[in-house]
């Protein structure tokens, strides 16, 4: 059931996306994509904070070392909330200045999956990428328009991906180990 709603954050987002609960910090973290902001809210204390990000960040994942992995318009990078520092991962920039990373999330083994979207130019050339800290970046599939809405079935055997512009949801047989 859902109880009464409360407004918990005073600043309005232009495009608030992907809220993620950070259990270690006991806070909710989300992004305002258009304003290049990262927000964190602690319900227990009512404390909130806002960080200006160095690039448009669409995908977000929590890391074991308490940093955040962000998929940005400049590439993948690690953001430290405590020090407000961003470290870009070399070799992860999108393929051109006309595209950026979009939605992303981690699988059960901690690999980050993220798709791209075109900002200008021909559509239908976007890709789904997997970033693994040990193996780097790998293209997993192509020919989308706007990769969005990644998720896995409860049993982990199906990966779902929404292609926003074509209004299609794809379901892939997914083998976590392979």
Q: Tell me, briefly, the overall form.
A: globular
* Strands, total number: 15
Contiguous low-pLDDT stretches (5 residues minimum) are none
Order of H and E elements: EEEEEEEEEEEEEEE
| Strand arrangement in the largest pleated sheet | 1-2-3-4
State the helical fraction: under 10%
Measure the end-to-end span. 38 Å
Question: What structural class should be given to the helix and strand makeup?
Answer: mainly beta
Strand content is over 45%
- What kind of sheet is the major sheet? 4 strands, antiparallel
- Number of helical segments with 4 or more residues: 0
| Radius of gyration computed on alpha carbons | 16 Å
The pLDDT mean sits at: 89
Mind sketching the topology for me?
Blueprint: E1 16-22, E2 27-32, E3 37-42, E4 47-52, E5 57-62, E6 68-72, E7 75-80, E8 85-88, E9 99-106, E10 112-118, E11 126-132, E12 136-144, E13 147-152, E14 158-163, E15 168-173
Antiparallel strand pairs: 1-2, 2-3, 3-4, 5-6, 6-7, 7-8, 9-10, 10-11, 11-12, 13-14, 14-15
Polypeptide structure, described:
The chain has 178 residues and is mostly beta strands. It has strands at 16-22, 27-32, 37-42, 47-52, 57-62, 68-72, 75-80, 85-88, 99-106, 112-118, 126-132, 136-144, 147-152, 158-163, 168-173. The strands form four sheets. A four-stranded antiparallel sheet has the order 1-2-3-4, with no helix packed on it. A four-stranded antiparallel sheet has the order 5-6-7-8, with no helix packed on it. Strands 9-10-11-12 form a four-stranded antiparallel sheet, with no helix packed on it. The mean pLDDT is 89.
């Amino acid at each position: 059931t859902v109880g009464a709603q409360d407004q918990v954050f005073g600043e309005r987002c232009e495009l608030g996306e992907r809220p993620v609960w950070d259990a270690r910090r006991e806070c909710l973290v989300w992004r305002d994509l258009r304003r290049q902001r990262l927000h964190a809210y602690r319900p227990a204390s009512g404390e909130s904070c806002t960080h200006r990000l160095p690039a448009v960040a669409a995908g977000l994942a929590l890391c074991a070392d308490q940093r955040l992995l962000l998929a940005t318009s400049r590439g993948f990078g690690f953001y430290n909330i405590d020090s407000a520092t961003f470290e870009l991962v070399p070799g992860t920039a999108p393929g051109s200045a006309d595209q950026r990373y979009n939605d992303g999330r981690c699988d059960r083994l901690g690999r980050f999956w993220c798709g791209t979207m075109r900002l200008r130019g021909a559509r239908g050339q976007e890709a789904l990428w997997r970033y693994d800290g040990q193996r780097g970046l790998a293209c997993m599939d192509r020919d989308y328009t706007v990769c969005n809405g990644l998720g896995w079935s409860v049993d982990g055997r199906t990966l779902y991906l929404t292609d926003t512009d074509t209004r299609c949801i794809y379901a892939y047989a997914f083998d976590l180990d392979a």
